[in-house]
Amino acid sequence: MSDTGGLLRDKVILVTGASSGIGAAAAYLFAREGASVVLAARRREKLAALTAELTGKGFRASSVVCDVTRAEDARSAVEHATRCFGRLDGAFNNAGIGGDQTPLHEMGDEVYDTILGTNVRGLWNCLRAEIGAMLDNGGGSIVNNSSVAGLVAIPTAAPYVASKHAVVGFTRAAADEYARRGIRVNALAPGSTRSEITVDWYARNPGLEDAVHALTPQGRTAAPEEVAEAAAWLLSDRASYVTGTVMPVDGGYVNH
C-alpha cells in the first residue's frame, strides 16, 4: 500500500467529472490523503485507465460510468460507492461544461439547454443522491465546483455564468438545510485553471487567456492540483466548522 497521508484517511469520497482535469487531480490527491475514491465520469476508457493507475499504485479506488444529467446515473454512482466501500462520507461534484464566447442575443436554445442541463440539473441530481446516502450514514461533506463566474459576470458567457451562480445558490441552500443533520456543503470558485474545458475555450477564443491573466493578480493559470487541494481541505474534518461558504481559488481574480 502506498503512503496515503492523513487529511482524508478512511473516508469514502465520490468524484464526478473524474476522468480529466480538476476531477482527475482530485482523485489522485484524495487517494494520496488516505481516501477510498470512487471516480465517476462519462468517458469509460479514460475513467478505467485512471482507476487502474490508482489501484496499481496501491490506492483504494473504483469507478462507475456516469452522466450526471441522468438522475438514475447519479443514484447509481452513489450506490456503487456504498456497495464498494460501505458508505459515502464525501463528494466532490466537479462535473461541468463550459461554453462559447457568444453575445447573449445570438445564443441558441441548445447552448442554454446543454450548459444548464449539465451544470445545474446535473448538480441537482447528484446532491439528492449524495445527501440521502449521507443521512443514512450520520453525515458527511460535499464540495461543489462552481467558478469565479458564480461570483462575478464574465462577458458573452451568460448561460455559463447563470449556471455557476446556480451552483452557489444550491450550495448555500443545502448547507443551511442540512447543517444540523451533520452534512456540510461548500463550493469552490476556481479561476482560470488548466483543464480540457479552459484549453478548448482559450483555443476557440484567441486573446482570451491573455486577457484573463491581465485581470489576475498572480498573472497565470492554475494547475488542477491547486484546486484539488482546496477541495480536499473542505472535505476534511479540519474544515468541520465551515459550511455554506464559497472559496475562490483564483489567484486573486475576484478581488482585483
UniProtKB/TrEMBL annotation:
Gene3D superfamilies xref list: NAD(P)-binding Rossmann-like Domain
Keywords, sorted A to Z: Membrane, NAD, Oxidoreductase, Transmembrane, Transmembrane helix
Domain spans labelled Ketoreductase: 11-191
Gene Ontology terms for molecular function: glucose 1-dehydrogenase [NAD(P)+] activity
Taxonomic superkingdom: Bacteria
EC identifiers of the protein: 1.1.1.47
Chain segments annotated as transmembrane: 12-31
Keyword Membrane: yes
Signal peptide: none
Enzyme class at the top of the EC tree: oxidoreductase
NCBIfam families in alphabetical order: PRK07231.1
Family: Belongs to the short-chain dehydrogenases/reductases (SDR) family.
Protein name, entry field: Glucose 1-dehydrogenase
